[in-house]
Amino acid sequence: MNGSHSHYLAEELYKIGAIQFGQFTLKSGQMSPIYINLRPIISCPNLLRSIADMLWEKARSCQFDRVCGVPYTALPITTCLSLHHDLPMLMRRKEKKSYGTKQKIEGIFHEGQRCLIIEDVATTGGSILETAADIVESGLIVNDAVVLIDREQGGGANLKEKKYTLHAVCTLTDILNALMTSATVTKEDRKIITQLLEQTITHSIPPLSPQSKSFTERAAFCSNPIAKKLFALMEHKKSNLALSADVTSGKELLALADKIGPELCVLKTHIDIIEDFNARLVQDLQALSEKHHFLIFEDRKFSDIGHTVQQQYAKGVYHIAEWADMINAHALPGPHMIQGLSEARSSNKQSGLLLVAQMSSQDNLLSTEYTEKTVALAKQFSDFVMGFITQKKLSAEPQWIYMIPGVHVAQEGDHLGQHYITPEQAILENDCDIIIVGRGILKAQDPLAAAKHYRNAGWEAYQKKVSL
Ligand code: 5BU
């Protein structure tokens, strides 16, 4: 949907209390942190008119002869649509009529005419299906339903089973994402929204296959040679631990790589925080990567136009393309940036790209839609993109490698918004492959012992997953 629509809608609905956050008991007796009731819109003519316009944008491409709102909230909305666009309306009686004609659908219509259904909020689609059943029983044809907010709880799929198409102006995720950027939302509500968004992402991810494939099996699906190499290396070395070697001296970096290297599948650098960088440093680091069998991942997070990232990758002081096995980039600038990086690869060196699909920092701006688009983008460059920096597994396709930062066994976060989970949560619950650990190891009293601990925890979780 149009982003300005979701912002306007989210803001207005929140303002009038049509969307509320807290603890609510639903009709079913279940507790819910969100309550959506669009009835107050009938007292806000401007908003009602705008909502009808948004629905019309979706409805106009459907073929129909009549419109019918699902009782009750959609009735005034449908009336508004009908008046604005000269659409003959029908009305479904919710209560059975025990006298007169006993007809369920009121209004003038003929058998075989097509009726479009309008609804305010779709959850499982149950109310739409009930309305559709009465309309069809009265001799009309139903092909489409248009809804303002799709709560993404199976409505679309349930309608599809009956061969109806659900068109949604926006999803609940759109609304929640829009509310996250709204200044009117209270701090408490923002917390609840963050949690809800995290759950939504989990729901949109394909469920774990009954038995997860092993790294060796998945290597066969990779087009990128570094992805294949990494899968093989992990299985051989029995490590899915990446060290985030966030130190500022070259000497310290090399000492760490030598000491912790035997525990790692990947050593991640932020080369631009090194204060005494010189070309020799990366040569020595490469030698250690060969000695201890780990790959070097430069966490550069490219994010610019294709022409600029080419130079940032291959030129400057660091000549990253010459020594990094893996790099990463934000998907934000789109396909031409990936094209640019791909073209700037060194002819002497194989390399792979990871796209940042989700972040561990609290209140980050990466929406579910952004994450999904990032996955779609990766598919366009499957010979170069090897996977994602993410918080959760994102696709059922076995070739992608999921690396998860924000892992710590003892802390929940830092004062700058870093949010931590444990290795078990990262690998088993969130179904990622490689844990990226920085301060959990670097700040430990005995970094080597800590690295061994994370390595065991990560590997045991992986083994448990593939044997499930
Ligand atoms: P920590 O010390 O374990 O918190 O370090 C985490 C590292 O991972 C650090 O180098 C970050 O730049 C990096 N990181 C992250 O923490 N969260 C993210 O979402 C991304 C990268 Br993307």
Walk me through this protein's architecture.
- The protein has 468 residues and is an alpha/beta fold.
- It folds into 2 domains: 195 residues, Rossmann fold, CATH 3.40.50.2020; 253 residues, TIM Barrel (Alpha-Beta Barrel), CATH 3.20.20.
- It is 42% helix and 19% strand.
- It has an 8-stranded parallel beta barrel, surrounded by 6 helices. It has a 6-stranded mixed sheet with strand order 5-4-3-6-7-8, sandwiched between helices.
- Helix 16 runs parallel beside helix 18.
- It starts with a helix and ends with a helix.
- About 2% of the residues have low confidence.
Compute the gyration radius: what is it?
27 Å
CATH superfamily of the largest domain: Aldolase class I
Mean pLDDT: 93
The spatial strand order of the largest sheet comes to 9-10-11-12-13-14-15-16
Describe the secondary structure blueprint for this structure.
Blueprint: H1 3-15, E1 19-25, E2 31-36, H2 45-59, E3 66-69, H3 74-85, E4 89-92, E5 105-106, E6 114-122, H4 126-137, E7 141-150, H5 155-161, E8 165-171, H6 172-180, H7 187-204, H8 215-219, H9 225-237, E9 241-244, H10 250-260, E10 266-269, H11 279-292, E11 295-302, H12 306-314, H13 320-323, E12 326-330, H14 335-343, E13 352-356, H15 368-380, E14 385-389, E15 401-404, H16 423-429, E16 434-437, H17 439-442, H18 447-467
Parallel strand pairs: 3-4, 3-6, 6-7, 7-8, 9-10, 9-16, 10-11, 11-12, 12-13, 13-14, 14-15, 15-16
Antiparallel strand pairs: 1-2, 4-5
The structure holds 5-bromo-uridine-5'-monophosphate (5BU).
